[in-house]
Design a protein that fits this description.
Blueprint (H helix, E strand, L loop, with lengths): L1 H24 L13 H12 L2 E2 L29 E3 L6 E5 L5 E4 L14 E3 L4 E5 L12 E3 L4 E5 L12 E3 L4 E5 L12 E3 L4 E4 L13 E3 L4 E4 L13 E3 L4 E4 L13 E3 L4 E5 L13 E3 L4 E3 L14 E3 L22 E3 L9 E2 H7 L5 E3 L5 E2 L16 E3 L20 E3 L6 E4 L11 E3 L4 E5 L17 E3 L6 E2 L13 E3 L4 E4 L6 H4 L5 E3 L4 E5 L12 E3 L4 E4 L13 E3 L4 E2 L15 E3 L6 E3 L15 E3 L4 E5 L9 H4 L21 E5 L2 E5 L8 E3 L4 E4 L13 E3 L4 E5 L12 E3 L4 E3 L14 E2 L13 E3 L9
Parallel strand pairs: 3-5, 4-6, 5-7, 6-8, 7-9, 8-10, 9-11, 10-12, 11-13, 12-14, 13-15, 14-16, 15-17, 16-18, 17-19, 18-20, 19-21, 21-22, 22-24, 23-25, 24-26, 26-27, 27-29, 28-30, 29-31, 31-33, 32-34, 33-35, 34-36, 35-37, 36-38, 37-39, 38-40, 39-41, 41-43, 42-44, 43-47, 44-48, 46-54, 47-49, ...
Antiparallel strand pairs: 1-4, 2-3, 45-46
């Protein structure tokens, strides 16, 4: 999964970089106008400005500047405003460039902006615009450029855009658009550039696209498009770039696709294309430079004809089900190859790393993950290739030794040698590689970090390091203090090792600067949690579960305003419930179970919304006493409000190394959730000393999936408001003093709920521990 996420993020960044370069070359500056702008157009622009607030800079923008609309004032010529260009003769506004202008608000269909008929170019990309794309855009009949990418636009693409007969560039990517692609876009006969990627579009590619004879760039990747390969695209002889990646296309590929005369880049990765891969009568004169076919259902051998692609610079054949030996000599003819991904080939062939590097001298990125790789340490230290490797992925390759040849790869910035059998210590020279910023050493048998005299000075980590994963090894002793020199760390995962001692206070060095994720769970750490989070405003996830930590939670955690996950389960923390964390408006998971928390849960929040984003709260197996306040369940709006249950999102999903796991009692079994869906809403208050009635407000958390109130002393009637929990799948009220019946609605035939209301309690100490396999809770 990490591998696919890395490839996906790389494709997104490449696409965004291409768009950025294009936009930068077409930034419109207003020429000195001979006429003042038209008053009615000036008024329309001012009204458009007032429709939006100035918010934060979009994450898709690369530079920080003043919002262009700040120069828009009523007492001067609008042709002199930033982002506005006028016709030098008529004074009409013809170009409007407001990309990266921090605009926040709804794009209104009745905006007077859409009455400026003279507009030829409109760029309002990379802002925070919401709402639907107004159909009135189709009235701007002179438009040649329309850029709306990088916003939060929803709804369907209006068919009226097909009226823009002069349009050459249509860029609607990186939004939340749904529905089918309107066939009317096939009317845009002048269109050369069409980008609809990273949306939620469904259906097939319209057959009308075969009429787009001038199209050279088509990207509809990262949607939910389906059907067989759209053969209508074979008519597009000028097509240079085609991306259908990350959709649900099926069937076979026409061999004539690979002989399109102008095609330079073809990306069909991450679909469900099948059968034998055939490239047809492809010739050595082919212009293909990028060929991405990975992660489909192709079977059979690698086509020999690939060796004819002399201009090829990037090749992805990952997850090709070869079912036998692979002829690696095919790649020896690809002298221009810079990026090669032949991971997970399901082959019986052992890949000689030295042979590949010695032949492909221009190679800079190589992914052999999931194959058996030999000769890992027989490569000459001087290096057989002329250009240094920048990215090397050898995950799951059966490697038993740390790749010694890497000590001379001074350009490498991404290294993944996870899921191998590497033993011994991490060598000190690794930290001397000047460009290294991303390292995955997880799931090996490493025991420590080399600190020999030879490397004592040189192993001071470089400030460029941002991602370091060392989970699931055999590291022991104290957490090395030299790791604190990584002041730019964003993700540090040392979970599932044998580290002991206390959490180093020096970790505050990167917590206050850059850290997003800190995972130290499943070790043998002891002592108090250091109070080092005062400036941790970027911290998104903190997991120190399954250790031997004592004392109280550090109060500085209340300063971590971005915190989504706090997991301290299975320690010996002795504290009252952390009501003081109520200021954390983004907190989604709070796991305190199996500690020594105590005291009352009676509390009146000081803020209007107490944990509004909370989706999972597990405070089981502690010593909380007293009664639950009547409004205890009233404030958790994320569990109450209806959401889009058809869309799968993962907590922390924005960070490719962030796979936040959680142990949760569900249907009588203690389950480990490797990744947490936002659909999983759970409350577990079992194993405490609570009494009194269950508050009727429990019926407000309508999105609840798991509810466990067992092993307390609750009394009175089972609240009828439980009938509102129509999504509930697991309910445990056992080992209490309750009377009455479970509401009948919870036991209707269409429900799969498991009822443990009056059964013997399923204690964590004597239940099986399993890994969740429900496809809604686990990504494959």
């Amino acid at each position: 999964m990490q591998k696919e996420s890395w490839n996906s993020m790389s494709i997104i960044l490449v696409t965004l970089s291409f768009l950025f370069v294009f936009i930068s070359q077409n930034v419109f500056s207003a020429p000195s106008s001979r006429h003042l702008c038209l008053p009615e157009q000036r008024d329309a622009l001012l009204e458009f400005k007032n429709e939006f607030e100035i918010g934060e800079l979009s994450r898709y923008c690369y530079s920080v500047g003043q919002p262009k609309t700040e120069s828009w004032v009523n007492n001067n010529d609008c042709c002199s405003w930033d982002g506005v260009a006028c016709d030098t003769k008529s004074g009409e506004v013809v170009e409007l460039d407001l990309h990266c202008s921090r605009l926040h608000g709804m794009l209104h269909s009745n905006s007077k902006l859409f009455r400026i008929q003279s507009l030829r170019s409109l760029d309002i990309s990379r802002n925070d615009l919401s709402g639907q794309i107004p159909s009135s855009l189709g009235n701007l009949s002179h438009l040649t450029f329309l850029h709306l990418d990088g916003n939060n636009l929803v709804g369907e693409i209006p068919s009226s855009l097909g009226n823009l007969s002069h349009l050459t560039h249509l860029i609607l990517g990186v939004n939340r658009l749904v529905g089918e692609i309107p066939s009317s876009l096939g009317n845009l006969s002048h269109l050369t550039y069409l980008y609809l990627g990273i949306n939620r579009l469904v259906g097939e590619i319209p057959s009308s696209f075969g009429s787009l004879n001038n199209l050279y760039y088509l990207d509809v990747g990262y949607n939910k498009l389906s059907g067989s390969f759209p053969r209508t695209l074979l008519n597009l002889t000028k097509l240079s770039v085609l991306s259908l990646s990350d959709n649900q296309f099926t069937g076979t590929l026409p061999s004539s696709l690979f002989t399109l005369p102008s095609l330079e880049s073809l990306d069909l990765g991450n679909n469900q294309f099948n059968a034998t891969l055939e490239l047809g009568n492809i010739s050595s004169s082919s212009k293909l430079k990028q060929l991405r076919l990975g992660n489909n259902n192709f079977i059979g051998s690698i086509p020999i004809s690939i060796s004819k692609l002399a201009n090829l610079e990037g090749l992805d054949l990952s997850y090709l089900n070869t079912q036998g030996p692979v002829d690696l000599n095919i790649f020896s003819h690809l002298k221009s190859l810079e990026d090669l991904d032949i991971s997970h080939l399901n082959t019986t062939t052992t890949i000689d790393l030295n042979a590949i590097l010695s032949v492909l001298k221009r190679l800079v990125v190589l992914d052999l993950s999931g194959n058996h790789v030999s000769a890992i340490n027989k490569i000459s230290v001087s290096g057989p290739h002329s250009q240094s490797i920048t990215g090397l992925l050898l995950s799951g390759c059966g490697i038993t030794e740390f790749p010694e040849f890497l000590r001379t790869e001074h350009e490498i910035f991404y290294l993944n040698i996870s899921n191998n059998r590497i033993k011994g210590q991490v060598p000190g020279w690794l930290w001397t590689l000047p460009e290294l910023y991303d390292v995955d050493l997880s799931r090996n048998s490493l025991t420590g970090f080399e600190r020999s005299t030879k490397h004592r000075l040189s192993n001071v980590p470089k400030p460029s390091m941002e991602f370091l994963l060392g989970s699931n090894n055999n590291f022991s002793g104290n957490i090395p203090s030299f790791l604190c020199m990584f002041k730019s760390l964003r993700v540090l995962d040392l979970s599932n090792n044998n580290f002991n001692g206390s959490i180093p206070r020096c970790m505050g060095n990167f917590i206050k600067r850059s850290l997003l994720v800190l995972k130290l769970g499943d070790n043998q750490l002891s002592g108090k949690m250091p109070d080092i989070f005062l400036s941790g405003r970027n911290l998104t996830s903190l997991n120190v579960a399954h250790n031997q930590l004592v004392g109280k939670l550090p109060r500085s955690l209340s300063s971590c305003s971005s915190l989504e996950v706090l997991n301290v389960e299975h320690n010996r923390i002795n504290d009252t419930f952390p009501f003081w964390l109520e200021s954390l408006q983004k907190l989604q998971v709070l796991a305190l179970h199996s500690n020594e928390f105590h005291g009352s849960l009676q509390y009146h929040p000081k803020v209007a919304s107490w944990f509004p984003q909370l989706r999972i709260i597990d405070i089981s197996n502690n010593s909380f006493t007293g009664t639950l306040p009547s409004d205890f369940f009233m404030y958790w709006s994320a569990m109450s409000l209806e959401g889009n249950s058809s869309e799968l999102k993962y907590i922390g999903g924005d960070y490719r190394f962030y796979q936040e796991s959680l142990v949760l009692m569900n249907k009588g079994v203690e389950l480990t959730y490797p990744m947490i869906l936002t659909l999983l809403n759970a409350i577990d208050i079992s194993g405490n000393k609570l009494q009194g009635e269950i508050p009727k407000s429990i019926g407000l958390v309508k999105n609840l999936i798991v509810l466990n109130l067992s092993s307390n002393s609750f009394s009175g009637n089972i609240p009828s408001s439980l009938a509102n929990l129509t999504k509930l799948e697991s309910l445990d009220l056992s080992d209490n003093k309750l009377s009455g019946q479970i509401p009948p609605a919870l036991g209707s035939p269409h429900k799969s709920i498991q009822d443990y209301s009056f059964s013997q309690p399923a204690h964590r100490s004597d239940t099986a521990r399993d890994t969740v396999s429900d496809p809604r809770f686990l990504v494959f």
